[in-house]
Design a protein that fits this description.
This protein is of the alpha+beta class and 363 residues long. It has helices spanning 2-24, 59-66, 70-101, 106-149, 188-193, and strands at residues 39-45, 48-55, 166-168, 171-182, 202-217, 220-234, 239-241, 249-251, 255-274, 284-304, 309-313, 322-332, 335-342, 352-362. The longest helix is centred in the middle third of the chain and has 44 residues, at 106-149.
Length: 363
């Protein structure tokens, strides 16, 4: 009979295992079940007493729940469940023999049978919970093992952030006015004849993809690009120039407007310094540089009064094939000024040079 009582005690252990499996479903480690007093019931069968323990806390189960490997613990729980199942089956068989031999009231024996049936059902529930826990933990264990087998990836040291070495815009536009500087060998009559109308003598320079090469900081740079320079020279006097000659002209009262157009392809290079942003003003910058270019096209445009005619002559009028000089820039916020000074003669061997002043913007 002692074996039978021990079997009934194992029923309580099965219920406790079932609770422990439910607690194990919350990773990473299940909480310890609260300790409490034992809840027992006794059933008298003849001269034998059946002790059924419905709630019991053991230190061994708590220790398993608090530590150890999850996989090893579930394997041990499964072995305990199998042993408890065998003990319950044996207790059921012994109870059947008591039911047939005992003189005890049948009501008490039926109550004992129901207790055993309930313990058996709880054991089955615990088995199903354990299987579900193993199924859920299976992929996680495999991934954990895979991660354990993969060697750690060494961290790549992050070096200092690289400084920007250059930047590029789309277009620089310079718009200014031309002024002629006459040498000492030019007579006063020629100077008067070649005197320019200021506003009708503009110059436009388009610099494509202007690039800034930074010199160790964003405040110092070299500026360059590819420029197309268009210069227009309109004279106050009514002059008619001879094609194929350099500054060979005559005066005609029928002339309303006489002007030259010259197109150059230039390469500028400017050393430029710029401050940081100043509140309410912007940036202040200044630069000095040089340029050089080749002549692409030259023409003379003549407008007559009577009869009204427009004559455009695309011939060689003696403009210098090479043009070079110095340039300067001064920027105060959005107000940007520039100046250019040619170092060579505008016309070949004429001792006449061109200067240009105006505004510029960046797109």
């Amino acid at each position: 009979m002692k074996k039978f009582l021990i079997s009934i005690g194992l029923v309580s252990a099965c219920a406790l295992v079932f609770c422990s499996v439910n607690a194990q479903e919350q990773p990473p480690s299940p909480p310890s079940p609260p300790a409490g007093p034992e809840d027992t019931s006794r059933v008298q069968i003849g001269n034998r007493q059946i002790l059924i323990i419905t709630s019991k806390t053991t230190k061994d189960t708590t220790k398993k729940a608090e530590g150890g490997n999850r996989e090893d613990w579930t394997d041990e729980l499964e072995r305990e469940l199998e042993a408890a199942g065998r003990e319950i089956e044996e207790a059921m068989r012994e109870l059947k023999r008591e039911l047939s031999d005992s003189t005890q009231p049948q009501a008490e024996l039926e109550e004992a049978r129901r207790e055993l049936e309930q313990a058996k059902n709880e054991l089955e529930d615990a088995r199903r919970e354990l299987d579900d826990a193993r199924l859920d933990a299976g992929p996680e264990r495999r991934r954990k093992r895979q991660r354990e087998n993969i060697p750690p990836i060494p961290e790549v040291p992050i070096g200092p952030k690289k400084k920007r070495v250059a930047s590029m815009d789309f277009l620089d536009i310079e718009a200014g006015l031309n002024y002629l500087q006459f040498g000492s060998g030019i007579s006063e009559t020629t100077q008067k004849d070649l005197d320019l109308k200021n506003w009708p003598s503009p110059s436009f320079t388009l610099t494509f993809f202007p690039t800034r090469f930074y010199l160790g900081s964003r405040n110092a740079m070299l500026m360059s690009g590819l420029s197309w320079r268009i210069s227009q020279f309109e004279f106050r006097e009514k002059l008619v120039f001879e094609p194929g000659q350099t500054l060979v002209y005559s005066k005609d009262t029928l002339v309303k407007k006489s002007q030259f157009m010259a197109h150059y392809l230039q390469l500028p290079l400017t050393l430029y310094f710029e401050s940081n942003k100043i509140r309410g003003l912007g940036r202040i910058g200044a630069g000095i540089g040089a340029y050089a270019g080749v002549l692409l096209h030259q023409e003379h445009e003549l407008t007559l009064n009577n009869p009204k005619r427009f004559i455009e002559t695309e011939e060689n009028f003696g403009f210098a094939k090479i043009r070079y000089g110095l340039s300067a820039r001064l920027d105060i916020g959005a107000f940007k000024l520039y100046g250019k000074m040619d170092l060579n003669d505008l016309w070949d061997d004429s001792d006449i040079r061109n200067h240009e002043f105006g505004l510029w913007i960046t797109l």
